Give the backbone structure.
Amino acid sequence: MDMFVDNLTHMAKALNLLTFVFLGTVLVTSCSKQRSGQLQETEQHQSLSEKLQLLRLSEIKPTGWLEKQMVGDLDGFTGHLDSIVPDLILKDDIYGKDRLSKSVKTKDVGAITDDGLWQVQFLWWNSETQSNWWDGYLRNAILTGNAYHLARAEKYVNKILHTQDEDGYLGIYDQELRYKFDNENGELWSKATLLRGLLGWYEYTQDEKVLDAIEKAAQNIINNYPINASHPFYSTNPDAGGLTHGLMITDIFERLFQLTKKSEYKSYCVFLYKDFSANKLNEDAQIPKLMDSAYKLRGHGAHTFEHLRALSAAAYLSEDPELMNALDNFLKKIAGTTAPSGGPIGDEWIGQREADATTTGYEFCSTHELMHSYISLLGKTGAMEYAEKVERVFFNAAQGARHPQHSAIAYLKTDNSFSMNGKRNDDTTQPKQTRYKYSPAHQDAAVCCVPNAGRIGPYYVQSMWMKDTEGLVATLLGPSEVSTEINGENVLIKEITDYPYSNSIRFVVEKSGNKTLTLKIRKPAWADEITSSVDYQKEGDLLVFRFEKELMDFEVAFKTSVKEHSFKEDEVYFTYGSLVYALPISGQETISKNFPVSGFHDYQYSPLGFARYLLPTAPNLAGDDSKITGVFLNEKTRKQENRELVPMGKTILRQVTFQRE
Ligand SMILES: [Zn+2]
C-alpha cells in the first residue's frame, strides 16, 4: 500500500517529497487546454481487437498443486482475513452505513507511522483491503467450486448491491463529499477494487442483476465526471496515492467494453488515461515521462506496475500512436526494475534504481499488479513473451514470497534473502521497517499484500487458457481443466501435470462432436527439444494440434537443461524450465506475533551457519525437474562444497545470484 512509514523520511529526501505540503495549498494550473481535441481524433479509430480472448471465469479450474494451494489459501489467510483483522473488514461498513462524511477526520488502521502525514490516506484504506480481499476470495471460491465459500461470497455480493443508491452510486462517500475533490481521495479506487470483484461474480453467475449494477455504477461515474468536460485526476497536490490508484477504474471500463461492446466504455477508458497523464501528478505512467528516454521510474511500485495496464488499455483501445510509443518505452523502463525472479522494485518506491538481487525489495502488491498487467498485454498482443514473463513472476517472485509451509506471506522480499526479521537483510538504517517477515496480515505496515496474495493465484489460473479465432490456446501452463464451447461443440480438456515442477504434460481432450478442434500449446522459450505422442505443427511460439476425434489423450514433454543467466555486471543465476533456483539457507524460526484466530502467526527468520557462496570456475552443474546440483565456493571457509539448489518457491532464506570466484 502506498504508505511509507519508516522509510518515508529516507525515501522522501531522495525524491524531494518533503517539499510538498500534504493538504496542498499550492495552486496548480489546470491542464484542460493540453488535451482538448485529442480524444475526438482517437475516437475515429476502431479498437484493435484483442488477439486472445479471456474465457469466462468459471470455464477454467485449477487442478493438482494449483488447486491444492488455492484450497489451502481458503483454509488459510484468504479464507480468514476478515477474522484476522476484524476492525478493518467486519467492523467498518465503509461502502454502507460507515461511508465517509466531513465529520470523519481520522481512521485507526493499526499501522505504525511516524506522524499524521498519511492520515488522509487511511480514510480510504479499508475499502482497498476489503475489496481486494473479496475479489481474491470469491475468485478462489469460484475456481475451486467450494460451496461454503461460494455461499459467503454470494451473501457479500447481495449486501454490496443493497448499498447502491438510486442514482447508481456505489462507493465510500456520502452525498456531500462524492466527486467533489481537488486532492487525495479514494473515489475511483474504492470503486475499481469493488467492481473487479463484482465483475468476477457476474462472469461466474451470468446474473444480469449484477452486470446491471456494475453498469449503473459506471454510468454514475460518467455522469459525474463527464467525458472531455471534467478532470477526475486534477489534484492541487501532486502526491495523491488514492486518487492515482483510481486510474485502475480502467480495468472496469475495459472489461465492460469487452463484455458489452458499448463504445462509450472504450472512449471513457481512453479519456481517463489521458486526463491522468495530463495532470500534475508524481506518477511514472504519464506520457511526457515515458517519452523521455532519460527518465527513470521512481514512483510507488504498485502504482507504476498497475498503471502499465491502464496505459495498455488506452493504447490498444485508441490505437493512438503516441500511446503505443509510450507503452513501448514503459516496458523497456520496467525491464530494468525486475529481479531474476521477475519481482519488480517496490519497497515501496522504485526511486530511480535498477533491480538488485539483495537490496531492492518487491512488494507482493507490485508483483501481483505487474503479473496482471503482463496478462493483459498477452491478451492484446498474442505475444508469448508476455506469457514467459507471467510465469517468471508467478512461479518465482510470488511463490518465493509465500511461506512454503505456513499460511503467511512476505510483504517485502528480495531474491537473495539472508534474513527475514522485519528489515531488509538486517539493514538497520530503517529502524521501523517491519515488512520483511511472514504474516497472514501485516497490519503493522498495511493490509494490502495479503489480499493481493489471494488474488494472484486466481488471476493466473483464469488466464491459463484463452481463445483465438481458430480455437483454444494454452497460454500459461500448469495443472488445470478447461470446459468451454468451440464451433458449437462442448470441449473439455484436462491438463495433467506438475508443471513447472515437471516439464511433461498429459492432455486429455473430450469433445461432443467430430468437427476439427484447433488446440495451440505454448512452447516455452527455454525448451531445447519437444517430444509429443501425436503430430503437431509449429506456428511461432505455439505448437498447433488439430483433432476431429471425440477423445484424444496425448503427452507433450519439453526437454531442457540448466541455464545460466547474467545479471547486472558480475552476477549469475540459474533456471531450469520456468523456475529460478536458489541455494537454501537454514534459518532459526521465531514466532513474533500470535493472532486471535488459532493457527495464524507472524514468523521471522535468522540464518544458521551463515555463509554466502561464490561460483567456482568448474561448478559441474546438473539439473532435473526438482533440483540443480553443483559445486559452490563457501566465501567464509574458502572451501568448495557440493550443494543443491531448489526452486525459489520452496525456500525461506536463500541465495539466488552468485558472483564468480
Ligand atoms: Zn502491499
Q: What stands out?
A: The two ends are 40 Å apart (CA to CA). The chain has three domains: 7-463, 466-499+504-559, 563-659. The first helix runs from residue 7 to 15.
